[in-house]
User: What shape does this take?
Amino acid sequence: MQKPAIPKGTRDFSPEEMAKRNYIFETIRNVYHLYGFKQIETPAMENLSTLMGKYGEEGDKLLFKILNSGDFLSGVDNVETLRATSLQASKICEKGLRYDLTVPFARYVVMHQNEITFPFKRYQIQPVWRADRPQKGRYREFFQCDADVVGSDSLMNEVELVQIMDEVYQHFGIRVCIKMNNRKILSGIAEIIGASDKITDITVAIDKLDKIGLGNVNTELVSKGISQQAIEKLQPIILLNGTNREKLETLKKSLATSETGLKGIEETEYILNKIDLLGIANELELDLTLARGLNYYTGAIFEVKALDVQIGSITGGGRYDNLTGVFGMPGVSGVGISFGADRIFDVLNQLNLYPADSVQSTQIMFVNFGEKEENFILPILYTLRKEGIKVELYPEPAKMKKQMSYADSNKIPYVILVGENEMNSGLLTVRNMATGEQSSVDIQQIKDLIF
Assistant: This one.
């Protein structure tokens, strides 16, 4: 008999793990609500025509395609060449699992534009799928927790998103660096080194600086047909250091002849000035090597790295000025961020930062001695649950050892014993499972144990 298994890059979650994950989702959701974001959901699968061409050539390869139901080979001209041609493959797969939440959101905005009041602030917490090679911190099925604002060009939206990122990680107790860049600055750099037509190749290469080092970045640039002279001009800009202000002053001189580059500097300076007025707990760093490869970012780019755990980006996002244009609604500007819940889960686990009450389910368990005791306990359970106390009665009068073992395994902090004496006196026997101490309490005092 074949052993049960799950696909690589996916996971099961135990009750304790789900309690931790729900803590993450609720924390992010509560911060989104503070800033006026409203929740939507979109289907797990979208038409491939919606998804294809939105993530670049590499992204398209990572889309999970869904086989058409029924006689899916009826529309294929030559079954033998099916594996060799993506055009033929597209005839048997008209749908795919969503790769992210941003493109489905853009589709949603276009379809519901007459029902939406702009600017529209939405958040979305749902799973996405990527046919990637599984490795530590990278999964084929994972949750994203997105917040986007569409229908507004104001950079105050970027400022607000920086605040949200900072506030969420303060709640989690994770020390992070919020990295920021601007695609207009990157375009300006490509312009002044005489390689405007190579902007994508340049950004893809320098985005790998932390992973592969400067030498390999330069080798990749050469392989993309970028001249040695252009690469030499690029070096001091890639390796720019100092404070954010010092970096901007250097860039103003370097990009003095690029209108696009100067616009990017102006936008970055605006965000930094507003954040200085507000004050945030975590560092906000201008990082020119941040050049996320997705096609749709046009202005500010954001990425968050945990400082105390070696893991990839745990939040990312940016400005995308015309994403809805590919769906027939041009000129709608948007900006958004996405929290990687699965990576945050791993970081919180490694740093042991979950609050004790976030993983606790039942707070009190009543031992079951028989039907008479059950009848006495049931009204008490009703009263305690009305007070918001998580309480359960062991379902059958099993041996005491078995019932205590159940409470211990489920980390239930208090066990209450109700026998003949307790029913007669109205005082219940409470055992503290951590210390083993027992005491007699009335119903009101039970509430005091918890609150």
Q: What stands out?
A: The radius of gyration is 28 Å.
